[in-house]
Amino acid sequence: MRFRKLKAGEHFGKTGQKQYFSSAVTSESVYEGKADLPKHYHELGFFTLVLKGNYFDRIHGREEALNPMNVIWRAEGVPHIDRIGRKGGRFFFVEIKPEQLRRLREVEFPPSRFIQETGALTWLIFRLKREAEMADQACDLIIDGLTLEMLGHLLRKSVDGKMPAWLKRVVEKLNDEFTYNISIDELASEAGVHPTTLMRTFRKFRQCSIGGYVQNLRVTAAARRLAQNDVPIAEVALDSGFADQSHLTKIFKRVTGTTPGAFRRNLG
User: Fold this and answer.
1) Is 242:218 a contact under the CB 8 Å cutoff?
2) Share of the chain above pLDDT 70, in %
């Protein structure tokens, strides 16, 4: 079976407004229910941010599930098969123009595929989404800078494979227990290293502090709950590890650039 080529801004599902900028093409795609997509590849390398629903990506016989606020990068020309979960979904795409990718490849070639479950990349893309919606005189320059930051995250991915085993255990613990208050001393003790070594090594591999990482985990968890319109924001705050709704609003806006209420409205 031949693979179908999707041109810039072309996607399956119901495609929303396409916008063309100097460094990228942005668009959205909505599915009302379950869908099995045909084999295909894309003309441009692209990031996908899952806004609602579930997305299953399969390549070389291996399938991975993506949930709301997860991000996947796919290089241009890579054949793959996708399917959409039974409740459908909504997805935001940022396709990178060749000139922008060329700037990155002068330094290093990015991976052909990369999935990030949580982190700063999610919020860079969400900020780009808001800039594209504003479409004012400055947005093209801002989007150019944001796409470079996003591509920078792909280069950092190659570092993760060299992460010490003890640090991987720390990251797993934080991923599992981010709603609790865990001290640096407790983490260092479990890892068998000095607290200073822990903090320095964590920042080297994750490009943020432990506190910042936990904060991102909590904000991402809150964002996923906010996509469920029937959940009160105060309840979302407590379930995601925040002291109260005011605390959530303060941190959420600092990380994402918008309030929980505005974020929910943006998701429709």
Assistant:
1) yes
2) 96
